[in-house]
Amino acid sequence: MRNGGLSSGTLRLIALMGVFGLVVIFFATQIDNYLRASLFNRTSTSVAIILPIAVGQAFVVLTRNIDLSVGSIVGCTAYGIGGLLAAFPDLPPPVAVAAAVAMGALFGTVNGLLVSRFGLPSIIVTLGTLAIFRSLLVQGSGGASITTASLPAWVPAFAQANAFTLGGLQIRWMVLAALAVTLLAHLVLTRLRVGRQFHAAGSNPDAAAFAGIDLRATVLRAFVISGALAGLAGFFFLARFGNITVVAGLGFELKSVGAVVVGGVNIFGGSGSVLGVLMGAALIDLIDASLVRWPLVSEFWREAVLGFLILAAVALDAALARRLMRRRARRQPEHGTAPAAAPAAMPEDARP
After folding, report:
1. What is the pTM of this model?
2. Which of 222, 217, 218, 158 is nearest to 185 (CA)?
3. For the chain, what are the domain ranges?
4. What percent of the chain has pLDDT over 90?
5. Contact residues for 48 (Cβ-Cβ < 8 A; gap 6+)
6. Is residue 219 within 8 Å of residue 115, measured between CB atoms?
């Protein structure tokens, strides 16, 4: 859908940037010494953790599903890789990162198989695996914690390593890695046939199946990607905090869903951009960090604000969808209806 030459996705990005600017201006008038380099440094590092999770969540939501287990996957991966590095401190960094991604992908495969092969509702499956994965972490750890002192020095150093600085703004390697993942996901979803199949499967499953797309394989791939990126975020979490307990990653499922829907990915599947997810994650983390420093609001309202943002974004999407349907209905001839063309609606490059 276009309006004045701009697509709805572009308009959504512009609106998000406008809201982001208004949030910065508002808190700058409420909090002393708010506009400092430390705000950017702290927020960008936090976004680098939630962003891969949200990007993976976007793949799942595009297929009309949801993954509520990502927080538990982050916790299990952070603790598992932390224990692995404590036992084998000479393990090369690329191997440790690959192990984190593989561990997350394994959890994602469990979710994907239950949803795609057995036809179970994703919200029920991942609500169950959220508890199962967390219980495995609690039982497997025996209540013990991973400490920074037990990790190789390069792990916490990675979270603090700067690629370059702009004035007082520190651009860390971890932030660049998260941005690289986002850019890669954007290219996959917009340029590759296999990426467009995620949109097709969520937009019109019947038409996608008619075009020859394997819906079960597409849903499985979405959950594997979600788990793998949650595993990567688990490594980032380990690097940033060092001290890992059994509650690591708790609450990330809500943040990831919030970043996805606020970023413009339709919760009913089929449309959205990971560039919007990037803006959504940045906005949510900025508000979260700002509310901590705002003395007029209790920190207990932080989750409430996030919940409000999710509800507002879903309501906006629903209103836009109804408006679009009314506009299409008005364009139909007064007598008769337009012939059905579901198979033709499938993009040519989305077909296998």
Report:
1. 0.89
2. 222
3. 37-250
4. 64
5. 172, 174, 175, 177, 178, 236
6. yes
